[in-house]
Design a protein that fits this description.
single chain, alpha+beta, Helix Hairpins, 7-stranded mixed β-sheet, 19 helices
Length: about 675
């Protein structure tokens, strides 16, 4: 099947007539890409395809808990008279016994003031096909059962439900039942139960029949209450998600306007006060260091010269002392020689020699430079230069480093404080955020209460059903007085038991193929054959069990969010392959919850081969310019859904976000 075109008239946000050609350009370019902002009509386009094909059975995202006719009324564009109505036209083709047949499906409706008047017309090869028009719902159920439509037409929410694992078994079970035709078995089993109950009731007394009727009415009442509660639960769940989205948007606005800084202003100011005090202490400590030996760091040459001079003075002082000692010794020596009657010439010669020696020693030492310098001055100067000044320099450097770091932190704090908005500027956003959070919390509380209510109703329904079965089954063997009825009941029960075994056997037989298709799809998307080496579907619960590369069970929680979404996509892809139906694939918001690396996996490994015709409905943030470059060679047609704020309507224009033109 190939969808050739879609034409919307006054449908949802689409006013007047809006048309798009959907047929693939070639086998190498199977993708038709629609771009639109949130609220611009992407989901409405997907709903239009499903509503056109399935009518009341369509799973339309915008329907909620509205009845079918109320939904049709709501989907007539508000800018046109209700009696003008709305319509959807789908042109498609399919091969029948090797021959291509062309169809035009036109569901239309209008509000005549009292009720919705609707019709479905189907044209085959330009001729109105009355038989197909009258029995379209039967035809489409046989061709594309509504139970498997979600395998080909889906959005990010369905992927999310599968990825989170909460509803995966339910979705998988429904799809498998439909694919294998087990819904007919379920219906047959239900019909047999009804038959058994009717036959049992025929043999009852009036009083027993009354008790059975009351019990049955109670079961039906509890089932009705449970259905209503689940419908309300779905509505609340949708509201909670919407409120959560609003909270996220409000928090983003609040953060962009400096709201988070405003909330921590007191902490920032306290930290600034603490840093200022610490900086003051460090600067005082630096000044204390500067008051000591630090100034001498400016005079390294003079200190070295002073040490040298001190050493010289010390040596000179010793030389002067030695000279005085030698002069005294020479005097005593000469006197003694004179007393010994040594010839005078020798005494004079010796005296001259000794005097020359003393003079020579005085010349070698030089004169004293520093007056009254102590003998320990040189050692003290040496200690200052070798120990005191290096320690002082190191202490100063450490203090300067600490002070610089404190000053940088203070500068950053001052910049942050400068960005803190005033109370008046942020008050409105803060009130809005608090109100949105409050509404979100209220909906969460309501949803939790609804969950509790459903659990209670489930228990009450089970109790009512047990009572009904008890009333229905008591004394049957005694009261059934006809062998035919007894045999019928016996064979019916045996048939139901056989169908139960058949159901499990059929599922077990085909799950191996489904497991292989899903696992192959996952490996193809992720290209990590070592991450998941096995995948099993429980035939009774339809829960998926994974085996990791180490051979041990691998839970959903151990996969990353992106890997879980790829696994969810693989489940739908594998089921679609298993259906054996060559149908188009339509995906709304295809990349909303993926990071860049996993987005590329879908762009290159899934979208181009998901089907012979792939229709993508994306925002500019999902398939952006970079993503479009990877996808471009597979895209045959591009459209943009342009929403006019003043007219409150959407137009379909050719081209994607960065290059488009209005369609004729």
């Amino acid at each position: 099947m190939i969808l050739d075109s879609i034409t919307l008239k006054n449908f949802g946000v689409y006013r007047g007539k809006q048309e798009a050609n959907l047929s693939p350009v070639s086998d190498q370019k199977p993708i038709v890409l629609f771009g639109g902002m949130n609220g611009g009509g992407k989901t409405t386009l997907l709903d239009a395809v499903q509503l056109g094909l399935y009518g009341p059975k369509a799973r339309c995202a915008g329907r909620g808990k509205l009845g079918y006719r109320d939904y049709l009324r709501a989907m007539i564009h508000r800018g046109v008279p209700a009696d003008e109505g709305a319509s959807i036209e789908l042109r498609f083709r399919r091969a029948i016994e090797g021959e291509m047949r062309y169809h035009r499906l036109v569901p239309a409706w209008r509000d005549n003031g009292k009720d919705i008047v609707d019709s479905v017309q189907v044209f085959t090869d330009t001729t109105l096909d009355k038989e197909l028009s009258d029995h379209w719902d039967e035809f489409i159920e046989g061709y594309i059962p509504s139970g498997i439509a979600h395998l080909f037409f889906f959005d990010a929410e369905q992927i999310k439900e599968l990825a989170e694992g909460e509803h995966a078994a339910e979705i998988l079970g429904t799809a498998i039942h439909t694919l294998l035709g087990l819904d007919l078995v379920d219906q047959l089993e239900t019909d047999l139960i009804v038959l058994e109950r009717r036959k049992r009731a025929e043999s009852r007394s009036a009083e027993e029949t009354k008790l059975i009727d009351e019990a049955q009415q109670e079961v039906e009442r509890m089932q009705r209450l449970l259905d209503e509660a689940k419908l309300e639960q779905g509505t609340l769940d949708t509201e909670v998600r919407q409120r959560a989205k609003e909270v996220g948007q409000a928090e983003t606005r609040f953060r962009q306007e400096g709201g988070e800084l405003y909330l921590v202003r007191a902490e920032l100011e306290a930290e600034r006060k603490h840093l200022t005090a610490e900086l003051t202490r460090e600067e005082a400590a630096l000044r204390e260091i500067a008051a000591g030996a630090a100034p001498l760091l400016l005079l390294p040459g003079l200190l070295e010269e002073a040490e040298t001079l001190a050493c010289t003075e010390h040596e000179a002082r010793k030389a002067h002392l030695l000279s005085a000692v030698l002069e005294e010794r020479d005097g005593r020596l000469l006197k003694k020689l004179q007393k010994e009657s040594l010839p005078a010439k020798y005494v004079v010669l010796l005296e001259s020699l000794l005097e020359k020696d003393r003079v020579q020693r005085q010349k070698q030492v030089g004169k004293v430079i520093l007056a009254d310098a102590g003998d320990h001055l040189a050692a003290e100067l040496r200690h200052v230069r070798a120990t005191v000044l290096p320690d002082t320099r190191k202490a100063i450097e450490q203090k300067l480093e600490t002070i610089t770091a404190l000053q940088e932190r203070l500068t950053r704090l001052d910049m942050e404080l400068a960005r803190v908005p005033t109370k008046d500027a942020i008050a409105g956003l803060q009130r809005e955020l608090e109100q949105i959070r409050k509404r979100h919390q209220e909906r969460q509380v309501a949803l939790t209460a609804q969950d509790d209510k459903i659990r209670l109703l489930v228990r009450q329904l089970e109790d009512a059903d047990r009572r009904y079965k008890r009333e229905l089954g008591e004394g049957v063997e005694i009261q059934v007085d006809r062998e035919h009825a007894a045999r019928l009941l016996k064979h019916s029960a045996r048939m139901r038991e056989t169908m139960g075994k058949f159901r499990v056997a059929a599922i077990r037989k085909h799950t191996a193929r489904l497991e292989r298709l899903i696992l192959d799809s996952f490996v193809q998307l992720l290209r990590k054959s070592s991450l998941v080496t096995g995948l099993r579907i429980d035939p009774s619960t339809f829960r998926i069990e994974l085996t990791g590369g180490d051979g041990h069970p691998l839970s959903f929680e151990r996969l990353s969010a992106g890997e879980r979404q790829l696994l969810a996509t693989s489940i739908l892809w594998g089921l679609a392959k298993a259906s054996g139906r060559p149908l188009p694939t339509i995906i709304d918001t295809p990349l909303g919850r993926l990071d860049s690396s996993h987005r590329r996996h879908l762009l290159e490994r899934y979208f181009p081969v998901a089907s012979h015709q792939v229709i993508l409905l994306s925002t500019d943030e999902e398939i952006d310019e970079t993503s479009l470059k990877h996808l471009k060679r597979f895209v045959g047609r591009e459209y943009q859904l342009v929403f006019d704020e003043q007219e409150r309507t959407t137009r379909i224009e050719k081209g994607y976000f960065w290059n488009h033109e209005t369609t004729a």
